[in-house]
Structure formats: structure tokens, C-alpha cells
Design goal:
- The chain has 182 residues and is mostly helical.
- The protein folds into 2 domains: 40 residues, no CATH class; 107 residues, AhpD-like, CATH 1.20.1290.
- Helix 4 packs parallel to helix 7, helix 4 crosses helix 9 and helix 7 packs antiparallel against helix 8.
- The longest helix is centred in the last third of the chain and has 24 residues.
Length: 182
């Protein structure tokens, strides 16, 4: 059990209370990850702005990145949240497990994205030449590469926050998968 508590609406600033109210309206609840960000006056708003920025990537492609990075970083919270979001974006349970491992045999373009993401994350941005070539050959552009990197950064932030604070996971738990970074 975490020694870090997730704040309630009454325990955060008025500006964060307004964000809580919007999240409650939009999602039906305030995920613990978002609530935890509200311990800082500006972090929740800043993080949501990053997450909701306009992107060259489709929602399904962003979920590929989120699943790969969350698995690599061993973040059970984000694995669980993005398993739920992946299903909402049309992925099956088996496809989600494969994506978390860094491949997508069911779709060649998404496979290039998953492999690129895993190579970039596991090599601190130094994806192999072959993986980069495959990414571009699959139809991705340099603008897409920039957006992949921004989504990776977004996910690393949330993975690290949860891994450091270890608060309760408020999504159905994602099934176990052997870590791709072991």
C-alpha cells in the first residue's frame, strides 16, 4: 500500500477542483492518476494540455505507444488504464498483449509503430536504423516521429508518477505480461 494519498476534490485548489468537475462530467470519475497530479497547483492542467494537444497520430496509434511505453516502464496503472482505452479503440485483448510486448503482427503499419516506439524507448531515443527505416517505409513521416516522441514523453511522465507514488489502480487490472525490458 502506498504511503502517498490521492487527494479528494476538497483537498485541491479551486482551479484543480474545476478540472475535477470537468473530468467527472466527461469521464464519470476522476482517475487517481489525474487526482494525484492535483497535489501540484499547475501539474494537472499542464498534463491534460499535453495529453489533449493536436497530433498527427490517430487515437489508436497513440494507444499503441501508450501500451508499449507503459509495459516497458513497468507501470501497472498505465498498463491497466490503456488496456481499457485500447479496447475502447477497437483492439482485442490478444492484440493489446501483443502491443504491450512491442509488436503488432495483425497490422503492418502498427507493427512498425510499436517496434519503433520500443526501440526508441529502450535505447533512450536512439532507435536502430533498421527500425527507423521500417517506420518511415510504413508511411510515417518526420512530423509523426515528433508526435511519437511527445506521446512517449507524456507516457513516461505518468508512468514515473505512478511508479514513484504507487497509489491505487482504479481501472480493471491488466493481465500480467513478461516485461519487455528484462
Amino acid at each position: 500500500m502506498s504511503k502517498f494519498n490521492v487527494p479528494t476534490r476538497d483537498e485541491v485548489s479551486p482551479s484543480n477542483q474545476a478540472i475535477f468537475d470537468n473530468l467527472q462530467k466527461g469521464l464519470g470519475f476522476v482517475p487517481n492518476l489525474y487526482a494525484y497530479y492535483a497535489k501540484n497547483e499547475t501539474a494537472l492542467g499542464d498534463y491534460l494540455a499535453l495529453q489533449n494537444r493536436k497530433s498527427t497520430l490517430k487515437a489508436k496509434e497513440r494507444e499503441v505507444i501508450n501500451l508499449v511505453v507503459s509495459q516497458y516502464n513497468g507501470c501497472k496503472y498505465c498498463q491497466s488504464a490503456h488496456t481499457a482505452l485500447g479496447k475502447m479503440n477497437g483492439f482485442t485483448e490478444d492484440q493489446i498483449l501483443e502491443l504491450r510486448a512491442g509488436t503488432a503482427s495483425f497490422d503492418s503499419k502498427l507493427n512498425a509503430l510499436a517496434e519503433f516506439t520500443l526501440s526508441a524507448v529502450s535505447n533512450r531515443g536512439n532507435a536502430s536504423a533498421a527500425v527507423k527505416e521500417n517506420f518511415f517505409s510504413a508511411g510515417y513521416s518526420e512530423a509523426n516521429m515528433i508526435d511519437v516522441t511527445i506521446v512517449v514523453g507524456d507516457k513516461i511522465i505518468s508512468n514515473y508518477i505512478h511508479n514513484l507514488a504507487d497509489f491505487a489502480i482504479d481501472f480493471p487490472l491488466a493481465p500480467e505480461l513478461n516485461s519487455v525490458n528484462s
